[in-house]
Amino acid sequence: MDTLQTESTPEEHKLVITDVRFRPNSSQLVTASVDKSVRLWDAANPNYCVKAYNGHTSPVMSLDFHPKKTDLFCFCDSDNEIRYWNLNTFSCTRMSKGGTAQVRFQPRIGYFLAAVSDKVVSIFDVETDRQTLAFQGHSEMVNYICWDAKGDYLASSLELWNMAENKSMTISGHENIISALAQSPITGMIASASHDSSVKLWK
Q: Of the candidates 45, 50, 114, 135, which lies 20 to 30 Å from 12 by C-alpha distance?
């Protein structure tokens, strides 16, 4: 890894891979794909897929691991369905509606799950599966969301949402679609990448 050389390029998905997330405190990772499958890999031995779920009926768009319950991850599909998945049994434990583009657990504690569907970002209580908030202030379709390191704020296409007060602030800065958001756990800065060929840093 120190030389930044490719360790392995698993190619068992048949179509575009839409998301990849590492299991917390583990060398395992999970991938989602338009080929309607979810696959578990181990970076320590990446030449083959450890487990695969191929029985989905629509493209899998995003997934994420719970930060504390590391045997739990969830994924969403293009039919607005969210599935909670047990990694030990590699089976679905619960289904709900409300996510088509991206799902992200609240960092560190994982009380909440943020899910994107069209122009709406929903916040779900992970234990009860109850929708606690719905942020509907977007004029365009939302593709990406990003929590701050403490899980108090959520950025979505550069709408910054204060979770405690349920208030938002719009930040303008790109001339085209925002294609990705990432937050630094060290500095708290947010990086936004756009189809306007620029990356911008926010703090």
A: 114
